[in-house]
Write a structure and sequence with these properties.
The complex is a heterodimer.
Chain A lengths: L19 H4 L16 E7 L5 E7 L1 H4 L4 E6 H6 L4 E3 L5 E3 L5 E2 L5 E7 L2 H8 L3 E6 L6 H4 L17 E8 L1 H10 L2 E12 L8 E7 L4 E6 L4 H12 L6 E4 L15 H13 L3 E4 L2 H7 L2 E13 L5 E11 L28 E9 L6 E2 L8 H19 L3 H8 L8 E2 L5 E2 L4 H12 L1 H13 L3 E10 L11 E2 L2 E2 L2 E7 L5 E5 L8 H13 L6 E5 L16 H28 L6 E3 L3 E4 L2 E7 H10 L9 E7 L8 E10 L6 E11 L6 H20 L31 E4 L17 H18 L13 H10 L5
Parallel strand pairs in A: 1-14, 12-13, 15-18, 16-17, 25-26, 32-33
Antiparallel strand pairs in A: 1-7, 2-6, 2-8, 3-7, 4-5, 9-17, 10-15, 11-12, 11-14, 15-16, 19-20, 21-31, 22-23, 24-25, 24-30, 27-28, 28-29, 31-32
Chain B lengths: L1 E6 L2 E6 L6 H8 L18 E4 L2 E4 L12 E3 L12 H8 L9 H14 L5 H7 L11 H16 L7 H13 L1
Parallel strand pairs in B: 1-5
Antiparallel strand pairs in B: 1-2, 3-4, 3-5
The chains are: A alpha+beta, B alpha+beta.
Cofactor (chain A): Mo-molybdopterin cytosine dinucleotide
GO molecular function, one term (chain A): molybdenum ion binding
Protein name (chain A): Carbon-monoxide dehydrogenase large subunit
Chain lengths: 783, 175
């Protein structure tokens, strides 16, 4: 239960959230709550075809409909050189289609009218004539040299986007040649969608009187969006104010720039009135950033006793029609090369090939930490394949292969330097807490009776906090983050950060960090994010980077203020600066603890009584370039029972032991874990976005793309070990995405473990009951 | 069409298009933006309000169908003596993160506790199964509704817990 915000030394405590009072009263301010004088409404016309030439677009009937102010077509944008926009992946993407459409639900025209209803009505009247073309939906077929070329706009006449590799190919091959054991497994991570409860939207408000554009938008990275917008539109950056208001969940869906945003801005520029665009759920699922869609093959070379030698991975990545994967620029496959996981592989070689298909763009989203979901799922799944092959218990196999705690900082064969970890301790806690030995005994008894019970383990390593400027940038902008702290004369604090929360509790936890550094209570610290006119420049919130980057900035910024405060304290205490000591709440003269001043006293003095020659006021800014990423880890265990009659899998227990170093607010970390596990559960058992051969999206809404309710969702058990990050200012690592990264493998390993007596070695997600039912029937189970 | 209804205890008269959904009427015509829209197929429950005491998804009711009815939204939960125990419990038990589902979940929770003041965990999960939450994994929502149920049962002897008092006090300060 939440603790009060008034305690001093709040770091590490379950302080109640500052965000909650407005949300529990219905007084949050989300994008669709914003109403501006004269505001118009925009609705998009979308393609019914996955692949078709556009013969013509006729807006005349729509233009005559009641309330309609403007219809924008691809040709209109082409005349402004805005028909295409750059993507974070270094590709380009159509804003409104010209020439042809490349995925179903693609944006073709925008209709702007006085009301929501009028815009939607008129959108029906835009007449578009299409000439259907054959669709390519399978990325493996798309890479066939005979496949139709989808992107006629590119010089390279093929559907191949990129080839990327990491590790030492020759050294890996050498180990494979001589290995006593080699296992190989094909694994598909299906296309899923982050589906935040609040879909994407914006209000663009261009004021011709000042030439300033204020753009309210569902954005996880408002500063980056401002810069991109300036570069694309030619509007000067100081004349663009991006405001990301309360965001109803992001989960990676709100990192990219979408065509609807650009159209709303163009409309506001043309009409000089605010223009609102709010997409529907169907539009959100069918056209905004999807997640995963990796077709992977992994091979492990090992000794007879299961000690791993080398890992070889080949992947085909389905990126849809445009490569809009939201990656750091040097990482077209994200941080997928973390795929050696928690294990001490001698060598590894990893290849990824990206392919265009007639589907919506995306790839990086849904708590993936830049493709770590795919990497962690693959290695954890294949470690179980190895365990079965060499006949070693999967927990024991992992212990044999773990990177030892004394090996940190550990140099991985694909080039990562893991900061810290104690994998055995975390796994041991999980095994003990869930009663692993007992569960295995119970399983043996059940197996003897023909019942299907499975236990699945996942001991993953995450990599979050991008990242050091020498390696990480988004469209050239280094991936630092920032904090700015200002003390008012009465000792109250206004602090702003360059990240943008979407429910992760920054208004509370960053207040805890800053209050801790300044000896205040969280109640004294107001946190603001998301307004690019006021907050310092940052790269935003995604990939669990907030604590590693802005968290570091907040602590170091607090210390910068404390350095000045110490000088003022020395002046107030009439003691030499070297004789002034800080005890966490106040400064005192050495040996005279009764003679002390708090940060409140110092804040007042900063405006009323500074030492001669010192700049008045008490504030600081800190742009933090992290020296490395953070590498949280976890040990997750799932216990499942399978109904042989229906194929239904029941998750009986799920325990997640996470280690994210020092914890800022345990209550909030637990909440993050509960949410992420629920996503992992949904991905493992419920979620998939399939396409038919014509490229029709078969799960574009929540009737067919399933999101779990309280009835579907298992009860989650959580625990933690603490292995601090040695390089982070407060020893904290990111954690928000760990539960989604770590859990799918535990679920699937448990299901395969349950089915193993039948000879089942693998089953691809999502594990729908009908799929298990079919597997059971194939293996002779008829009742 | 002219309609008259009671919203959070106050009478409102409006002229609305027959096709206007109750959710949009509440949000756009009355400015009660706590009620949210999360889907287009009636799955998510972010728009849940009480219509004559029953929890309904206001995206699937026409405003004209609410003519003559009593409607309660999240904005009507807080009383003169402060937050409703359900609201306090969601705060104390961390039953919300982004806050987008929260108004709808609070209204379903409210309706549940009206009809079943002492629900079991299974009954709570069933009672809010028309509400999708993407952040919390439901664990703390279930805890919060249990806690509110206990608070409401204890309200008879009128002894709010220390933590509830603390939260209520800091809530006033943060206004």
């Amino acid at each position: 239960m939440a603790k009060s915000q008034t305690e001093l030394r709040p770091l590490g405590k379950s302080v109640g959230r500052k965000e909650d009072p407005r949300f529990i009263r219905g007084m949050g301010r989300y994008i669709d709550d914003i109403v501006l004088p004269g505001m118009l409404y925009m609705s998009l016309v979308r393609s019914p075809y996955a692949h078709a030439r556009i013969k013509h677009v006729d807006p005349s009937a729509a233009l005559e409909a009641p309330g309609v102010k403007l219809v924008i077509t691809g040709e209109d944008l082409a005349a402004m050189d805005l028909a295409w926009m750059p993507t974070m992946a270094g590709d380009k993407q159509m804003v409104l289609a010209t020439g042809k459409v490349l995925y179903q639900y693609q944006e073709v025209a925008a209709v702007i009218a006085e009301s929501r209803e009028q815009a939607e009505d008129a959108a029906q009247l835009v007449d578009v004539e299409y000439e259907p073309l054959p669709a390519v939906v399978d990325p493996i077929q798309s890479l066939d040299p005979d496949a139709p070329v989808l992107r006629e706009d590119r010089e390279k006449k093929s559907n191949h986007i990129f080839h990327w590799e990491a590790g030492d190919k020759e050294a890996t091959e050498e180990l494979f040649r001589n290995a006593p054991v080699v296992v190989k497994q094909n694994v598909r991570f299906p296309r899923v969608h982050p589906s935040p409860l609040e879909p994407c939207g914006c209000v663009a408000d261009y004021q011709s009187s000042t030439g300033k554009l204020t753009w309210y938008v569902t954005s996880q990275a408002p500063h980056a969006h401002r810069t991109v917008l300036s570069m694309v539109s030619g509007l000067p950056e100081h004349q663009i104010r991006v405001i990301s208001p309360d965001v109803g969940g992001g989960f990676g869906n709100k990192v990219p720039v979408y065509p609807g945003y650009v159209c709303a801005i163009v409309a506001s520029l043309k009409l000089g009135r605010p223009v609102k665009w709010i997409e529907s759920r169907t539009e959100n699922i069918s056209s905004t950033g999807f997640a995963r869609d990796y077709h992977m093959t992994a091979e492990i070379a090992a000794e007879e006793d299961g000690r791993v030698l080398a890992l070889r991975v080949k992947t085909i990545a389905d990126h849809g029609a445009f490569d809009a994967a939201a990656d750091p620029s040097k990482f077209p496959a994200g941080l997928f090369s973390i795929v050696t996981g928690s294990y001490d592989f001698k060598e590894s070689f990893v290849e990824v090939d990206g392919a265009y298909t007639n589907k919506a763009p995306g790839g990086i989203a849904y708590r993936c930490s830049f493709r770590v979901t795919e990497a962690a799922y693959l290695i954890e799944r294949v470690m179980d394949v190895l365990a079965r092959r060499v006949g070693v218990d999967p927990a024991e196999l992992r212990k044999r292969d773990f990177i030892r705690k004394e090996q940190f900082p550990y140099q991985s064969p694909t080039g990562w330097t893991y900061d810290s970890g104690d994998y055995e301790k975390t796994l041991d806690l999980a095994l003990e807490k869930i009663g692993y030995e007992e569960l295995r005994k119970e399983q043996a008894e059940k197996r003897a009776r023909g019942e299907l019970m499975g236990i699945g383990i996942s001991t993953f390593t995450e990599v979050v906090g991008a990242g050091p400027s020498h390696t990480f940038d988004i469209m050239g902008i280094k991936m630092f983050d920032s904090a700015q702290i200002r003390l008012h004369p009465t000792g109250k604090v206004l602090a702003r950060l360059g990240v943008r929360h979407q429910g992760q509790g920054h208004e509370t936890t960053f207040a805890q960090i800053i209050a801790e550094e300044l000896g205040l209570s969280t109640e004294d610290v107001l946190i603001e994010e998301g307004d690019t006119d006021t907050a310092p420049y940052g790269l935003g919130t995604y990939a669990s980077r907030s604590t590693p980057t802005a968290g570091g900035a907040a602590a170091l910024c607090g210390r910068r203020i404390r350095d000045k405060a110490k000088k003022i304290a020395s002046h107030l205490l009439e003691a030499g600066e070297d004789d002034v000591v800080w005890d966490g709440v106040s400064f005192s003269a050495k040996g005279l603890p009764d003679k002390s001043v708090t940060m409140k006293d110092i804040a007042f003095a900063a405006y009323t009584n500074v030492p001669e020659g010192m700049e008045p006021g008490l504030e600081a800014t800190y742009y933090y370039d992290p020296p490395n990423l953070t590498f949280p880890h976890g040990a997750y265990i799932a216990v499942v029972d399978i109904d042989k009659g229906t194929g239904a899998v029941k998750v009986r227990r799920f325990l997640a032991v996470d280690d994210c170093g020092n914890v800022i607010n345990p209550m909030i970390v637990d909440g993050q874990v509960h949410g992420g596990l629920t996503e992992g559960f949904a991905i493992a058992f419920m979620q998939d976005i399939p396409f038919d051969e014509d490229g029709n999206c078969l799960a574009p809404n929540w009737m067919d793309y399933l999101v779990p309710t309280a009835l579907d969702t298992p009860h989650w058990e959580t625990d933690r070990t603490v292995t601090p990050s040695p390089h982070h200012p407060i020893g904290a690592k990111g954690v928000g995405e760990s539960p989604n990264v770590g859990s799918p493998a535990a679920f699937v390993n448990a299901v395969v473990d349950a089915l193993a007596p039948l000879g089942v070695e693998h089953i691809d997600m999502p594990i729908f009951p009908w799929k298990v039912w079919e597997v059971l029937r194939e293996h002779g189970v008829n009742k | 069409m002219k309609i008259q209804l009671r919203i959070n205890g106050r009478t409102k008269e409006s002229d609305v298009e027959p096709r206007k959904l109750l959710a949009y009427y509440l949000r756009e015509d009355l400015g009660l933006t706590g009620t949210h829209i999360g889907c287009d197929t009636t799955n998510c429950g972010a728009c849940t309000v009480l219509l004559d005491g029953k929890a309904v998804k206001s995206c699937t009711v026409l405003a004209v169908q609410a003519d003559g009815c009593d409607v309660m939204t999240v904005e009507g939960l807080e009383g003169e003596d402060g937050l409703h125990p359900l609201q306090t419990a969601f705060w104390e038990e961390h039953g919300l993160q982004c806050g987008y589902c929260t108004p709808g979940v609070l209204m379903s929770g409210y309706a549940l506790l009206q009809s079943n003041p002492q629900p079991s965990e299974a009954e709570i999960r069933s009672g809010i199964s028309g509400n999708v939450c993407r952040c919390t994994g439901y664990v703390n929502i279930v805890k919060a509704i249990r806690s509110a149920s206990a608070k409401l049962a204890g309200a008879a002897d009128d002894t709010p817990s220390e933590s509830a008092k603390e939260v209520a006090a800091s809530g006033k300060k943060s206004d």
